[in-house]
Amino acid sequence: MPSLSVLLDSFFYRPDEDVGPIQELVAGTDETVEPVPEEIPEEYLAFRLEGEHYAVPIHGVREIVKVPPLTEVPRAAANLLGVMYLRGEVLPVYDIKVKLRLADKAPLVAGPDAAEPPRGARIIVVQTADGLAGIWVDSVSEVVRLRPSMLELAPPGVGGGERDCVVGLGRRKQQLFILLDIWQALT
Amino acid sequence: MNQAGKALAEFVAEGTEILEALGKDLLVLDQQRGSDPDPDLINGIFRAAHSLKGLSALFGQERISKLAHQAEDLLDRLRLGKLSLDDQVLDSLIEALDVLQALLAEASREVSSDALSGRVTELGSRLANLGVTSAAVDEDPLDRLELDAQVRAVFTEYEEHRLRENVRRGVALYRVRAAFDLSDFDTGLAELNSRLKPLGEVVSTLPSSEPGGASGIAFDLIFGAKVPEAELAAKLQGTPAQLFSLKVRPVGSAQAPAAPAPVAQSVAQGIRPSAPAADAPTPPKKPRKKRAPKGSGAETPAPAVTESLVQAPLLRAVEEASPEDLTQGVLEAMRMGESSSPPRPELAGPPVRTLTDEPASPRGPRMENESARSLTQTVRVDISRLDALMNTVGELLLIKANLQRMVETARQQEGSVMLSSKLWGQELSRETRQLERKLDALQQGLLEARMVPVGQVFDRLARLVRRIARDAGKEIDFVIGGGDVELDKLIVEELSDPLMHIIRNAIDHGAESPEARMAAGKPRRARVSLRAEQKGNHVVIEVSDDGGGIDELAVRDMALRKNLITEVQAREMSRRELLNLIFLPGFSTARSVSELSGRGVGLDVVKNNIGNLSGIIDVWSERGQGTAFHLTLPVTLAIIRALVVGVSGRTYAVPLNSVLEILSVKPSEIRTVERREVLDVRGTTLPLMRLARQFGHPERQNDRHFVVVAGLAQERLGIAVDELQGQQDIVVKSLGGRLQGVRGISGAADLANRRTVLVLDVGALLEEGMSLERRRA
Question: Which residue has the higher pLDDT, B610 or B431?
Fold first, then answer.
């Protein structure tokens, strides 16, 4: 009785094997197989800020958490909403609405006078050069797959000036996502 | 961490440990420079080099193993007396230690720079060529010893050398015969050895040719005694040992009497440079004395000789713990040596850089490595401490089992609710108390395990001081004290760079040149001391020098010129305040920017670093008398007891170790002095800071304030808050890189039920309070 591995061996792919016929066979069965194979779609996390749709590459996002009670930090930078505890680590939570000119002033979300955070609000935790940081978003919508051909440069007037953290636009059918450089947004 | 990385980390940790031990021993050797080295010490260093060689070869660190091998070779020749320990040898060994340290640093980063490799090769060949010219002994002193040729034949080379050395020095030699029972001869022999050790040197242990009874074994110990025979005999009372004196035939005529030498034998040797014993060959002295007057002659070995001459008196690390008279003796010997030798022009100015000094090229890369930080994050913990922790954990498990049982019973009784709820509550509260106690013990144990003696970093600094002093051309006595004071490992590591900076300043700017010191009527050698002392739950580290002190007027002028203060402010400032200006960013009084200090990024960085450790730095200086920096640090950062206070609905924690007292104050009791709020506390004026105002929170109108009186070092400040919420143990987490710059906050802590509170940085607030005063003045 030959051992199991010997039996299984014939099922394994070998580099010198001709897989052409198999690919042809597969090609007809699945509609999602892309005609241009070198266009690898990238995953983006889409979220909303003041009704606008934004997206960031998902590999930069460490996790998404519900808004915990935030502690305000006196005399800190204006875009710092507060600090939160995440499994034994203290991390700062930032507002990027002011930077994106969506609001004039960072909302008061920490301290005794702050209102309950809206139900949909989340903190996106990202890894930065100086450790973890959190970003307040109004809601997280979905993970979208965008192929390079679906991306376009930000039109003039949108990407310039203070909004240098906008790197481009992603278009999926009728929906438009504003692509952010999240690290730039935190500076 | 992957397998290879783990192995590397282990290697670096162990290598660091070996190098640390090596460094310590070399330092002792350095202190005893000029006297005969303790053979045990040399042996210890030899063994350390040997283990490093083996270890690094095991991990494929070829460069380290090669250099360690060469150092071991040199040490072997040293311990066999083929080479005498002169300044050049010692300096080379210390340099080898530095290079090994650098190599280890590179190994830990998994890089290998060519500059360092070049240095290794160069140093290696220098080590190999050192002192080959050991003069042949004209007459073997061993021949004068009445000892069986048979016995002599079994000596190892090292034992023979030690015996020869002892005879040469005229030490009284004994044969100690002891018979033990076979069953426990090892313990008996060990006990005898431990008794003999303090009295002299056990040169060799040989099984005796005469049987020691029916079931026994006898040993002959060849022993060189430092104490009179009577004392030796008295100390051996109660052991089976018998004493036989070994006779030494006098050599020629004027041999030093073989009388029992005084206790401080080795020191005495150093003190009398021309004692009768000097007839015996002291090879390296001869060429040195002959060549020195010629200055840097044309012969090739000359530069090396010059250098060792220059370096010799430059620096002496003096362990404070050693008896004063002994230290004094060594120093005395040094000075005698100085005065007896012909005038040395090299000493007039800064030491001449000679060819044999460190090559100039690796200077650059070495500067970045030049840190007294250790390479590893490991802490050595006594196993008994871990056992105690383990026990505590066991008891915690018991409590957990109890709680579980209670939960079970409660569930079963669900039908008949509230039946025994009172009893149940009592039981629960008892378990909670137990739990609390055990958690306290666990916490205490863990904190203890994190503690390491500050001596670790002091020793590393002592080595750096040597080099700094040499480069700066100063003559320094470096005094260390309180190395056994314990601090959290984290703090000790973070301390090394600030301390090094302050010490550099002391050597560079504080200590005057030898000539200037002589002119001022001070001893030629400047004294820089580094002391640690425990004061309650703080440790105070003092770095002081007896140099020129800080010229506060020069400080004021510099601050004015750099626009750090205004004329008006300058006029109002006290001397103490003027001195504190040196901590301002961008301040540097050094007229010449040296490589070591005076780059303008000086004490403000030090102050920040100390501040990050919740510590405070203070300076004292008297012109012409010296300068002292006091660093006040908490013993640990990990878990602290804090006072939880409320301000305008926000909650903050104040480390309890900086809270002196708490006052309840009515608004009417607050007075103002020059528009600044103060309190009158038992006759002294206490500056007051309203935390809400300071932090920009909406202020509340209270009919009374609580004032937390905080103090660090001599500074006092009252911090007004709205409410006190109690005490709690907190684990302080740093706010991370992005929030480093927030003033007045040192970190955050998690109170129960997901409440995050910020921890006040009392040191920074104190300073703010003080500078506020300054600004308003």
Answer: B431
The shortest C-alpha distance from A132 to chain B (Å) reads 8
Q: What is the mean pLDDT of residues B568-579?
A: 78
Question: Mapping DSSP to helix (H, G, I), strand (E, B) and coil, where does residue A66 land?
Answer: strand
Contacts 24+ apart (CB under 8 A), B442-448: B442/B389, B442/B392, B442/B393, B442/B396, B443/B639, B443/B729, B445/B385, B445/B388, B445/B389, B445/B392, B446/B389, B446/B638, B446/B639, B447/B488, B447/B636, B447/B638, B447/B639, B448/B385
The answer for A101, left when phi > 0, alpha when psi is -120 to 50, beta otherwise, is left
- The mean pLDDT of B180-196, rounded to a whole number, is 77
SS3 B292: helix
Q: What one-character DSSP code corresponds to residue B298? A: S
pLDDT tens-digit map of B455-478: 888 887 887 787 778 777 788 888
pLDDT tens-digit map of B289-334:
444 444 444 444 444 444 444 444 444 444 444 444 444 444 444 4
Contact B744 A75 (CB under 8 A): yes
Give CA–CA dist B70/B62, Å, rounded.
Answer: 12
Lowest mean pLDDT, pick from A61-65, B159-163, B254-258: B254-258
Distance CA B723, CA B480 (A): 46
**Alpha-carbon distance A43 to A179, whole Å?**
12
Nearest to B742 among A73, A85, A130 (CB): A73
pTM: 0.50
Compute the distance between CA of residue B348 and CA of residue B327 in angstroms, rounded to an integer. 25
Map residue B751 onto helix, strand or coil: strand
- State pLDDT tens for residues B116-134: 888 888 888 887 777 655 4
A131 contacts B748? CB cut-off 8 A: no
- Smallest CA–CA distance, residue B604 to chain A, in Å, is 21
Interface mutation vs chain A, best among B651, B700, B738, B761, most A CBs within 10 Å:
B738
**Residues of chain B with C-beta less than 8 angstroms from the C-beta of A74:** 694-697, 742, 744-745, 758
In a mutational test of the A interface, the residue from B697, B739, B760 whose CB has the highest number of chain A CBs within 10 Å is B739
Residues of chain B found within 8 Å of residue A187, distances taken between Cβ atoms: none
Q: How near does any CA of chain B get to the CA of A68, in Å?
A: 8
CA distance B580 to B577: 5
Residue B650 forms contact with A (CB below 8 Å): yes
Contact B756 A84 (CB under 8 A): yes
Rounded Cα–Cα distance for residues A13 and B347 (Å): 80
**Chain A contacts of B738, Cβ < 8 Å?**
92, 128, 130-131, 133
Q: Could you tell me which residues come within 8 angstroms of residue B686 by beta carbon, excluding any fewer than 6 positions away?
A: B678, B679, B680, B709, B716, B717, B718
Summarize the confidence of residues B670-682 as an average pLDDT: 83
What are the residues whose beta carbons fall under 8 Å from the beta carbon of B743, sequence distance 6 or more?
A75, B761, B764, B768
ipTM above 0.95, yes or no: no
CA distance A34 to chain B (A): 39
Token pair, residue B137, equals 């002994």
Q: Chain B: nearest CA to A74, how far in angstroms?
A: 5
